[in-house]
Amino acid sequence: MIDCHCHLLPGIDDGAHGWEDTLAMAQAAVAAGTTAILCTPHHLNGVYENTAEDIRSAVRETGQRLQDAGVALTLHPGSELHLVPELPAQLRDGTALTYNDRGKAALVELPKSTVPMGTETILEQLLYRGITPVIAHPERNAALANGGERLGEWIGWGCKAQLTAQSCRGDFGERLAGLSRHWLERGWIHLLASDAHRPRGRSPDKLAAGREIVAEWLGDEAATLLTLTNPQRLLDGEPLESLPARVSAARVRKRSFLGRLWRRR
Fold first, then answer.
1. Closest C-alpha among 248, 244, 205 to residue 226
2. Angle at CA of residue 152, ends 149 and 156, nearest 5°
């Protein structure tokens, strides 16, 4: 597996606090079957400002230390970018970092509860410049989770989406697990990642458990696409493949109705 969203770098954001955390996270990832990680520290979220060069330097140093410690894990640069008006300009001038510094796709983050005004404009600007926005953990954004077809509309424009493995496991509640499966069946999800922040709890080894759940739902081929094939495409700067939609229109209408009824209750 390749983990395309992980806060492994030490002391750079709200992920690993220091080298001991980083080493433990890396060891947990390898033990679970992860061979490479795209390191994605926060940038432009109002708290952390991790520029492209800072991240490249941290990845080089951390990768060397892991190699010296005998940990067989390859690190690649990336970033989790908050969707703010200055983002397109920073991507254009190279201050903000795309996946593996390829200039082709960028992991973008929304607030937990809302979709801020102007979000669609920023997404359109990125798409116009040839950068594919990958929406980080959309299932954990309340507005998208309750917003019916909004995520699907963005996917139709050319955006992609990444689920958190723990959402599929039900660690954030059965409702998010059901929503994750529903979006997977509709073909709206392209990547599965750990979004790990700690050696335990929100840890890198949860990616393997999430992959098992997806394999139960959709089969091993789909799970491989989300955890290996498409992450490798991110590393190579290639377009991501989509899962085939597996939900009929009738089932979509039924689930939509039941979802509205459940929310009213």
1. 244
2. 135
